[in-house]
Structure formats: C-alpha cells, structure tokens
Specification:
single chain, elongated, 3 helices
Length: 89
C-alpha cells in the first residue's frame, strides 16, 4: 500500500469527521452565543444557565441528524471494506 493511498484514506476520514461534527458544533455555538447575550442583558451569571441550553441544543441536533450521520459513516465504511482487496496489495 502506497503512502499516497494511506494519506488519501486518512484525509477522507478526517473530512468525514469534520462534516459529521459540524451541525452539532454550530448548534452549540449558536446556543452559547444566545445564552451569553441573554446573560449579559439580564446580568444573570449562572453556570447551569450557560451549560444546559448548549447541551440541549447539541443533543437535539444529534438526534435530528443521526440518520444522516449514520448513512455517511456507513457509506464510508462500506467503501473502505469494498476497497480492502485493493488496499492489501
């Protein structure tokens, strides 16, 4: 197996990981910014208030995007297993 092939597979894996995690990271970012603005406006500085909305946003986003994530990861794994005879050479 050549170095270029290994680097290509690893690049695809990293791109897939970034693509899969992006919706949850964006949801956490948006929820965090909104909570920070709310805390600034109301002068309420509570750590629980800062954490719970972000955690809920990430969880809901994960629940909604899980079928899509599963399709992407399954497709990548299937492609990798199908290319296995070519990769062993």
């Amino acid at each position: 197996m050549s170095d270029a092939l290994v680097v290509g597979i690893m690049r695809e894996a990293v791109e897939l990981a970034m693509l899969v995690s992006l919706p949850m990271l964006l949801a956490g970012l948006v929820a965090g910014v909104l909570v920070s603005i709310f805390q600034t406006v109301t002068s309420i500085q509570d750590n629980v208030l800062a954490f719970l909305p972000r955690a809920a946003a990430v969880f809901v986003t994960f629940a909604l995007t899980f079928p899509w994530i599963l399709r992407l990861v399954t497709g990548f794994s299937r492609q990798l297993v199908q290319r296995l005879p070519e990769l062993v050479r």
